[in-house]
Amino acid sequence: MWILLDLIAFLGFLKSFYFMAVAMNVIPADSSLIPAICRMKRSECLSLLSYAQSNFLSLSNYVAGLIYYPLIFLLAFLVLLHSSQSVLAFAFGISLTTVFLGIYPSFELVARLKILCRLCFADHVLNLLVAVVIGSFLKW
Fold it and tell me: In this structure, which topology does domain 2-137 adopt according to CATH?
């Protein structure tokens, strides 16, 4: 299960890194280096970077992802080394908070902005998977 959690965190980090690279014009949104299913559409995903809903505490969501996913990876490693339920509970709390913080922006994407960004929704699914995997390790 820890390998699954690390894989999810790695995929989330890659997605956040991709958003950052596109936002900073390091690579084009439709780069052939990126698998077609993951490419951003200029009219949808790329336009999201200018919306207030794509920020968390004045940080772009991709920056938050570049912090969150390595943190999850580190916490998973600490739990693996020390079998600490308190660290696990902390990681679970962070992951649940992340899931709940994603509900409003998801609603905004669909209901108000009418944008179906595959990468954004993939990120929300990854966040939910992180919470489910961590929660499965908790001793209730």
Answer: de novo design (two linked rop proteins) (1.20.1440)
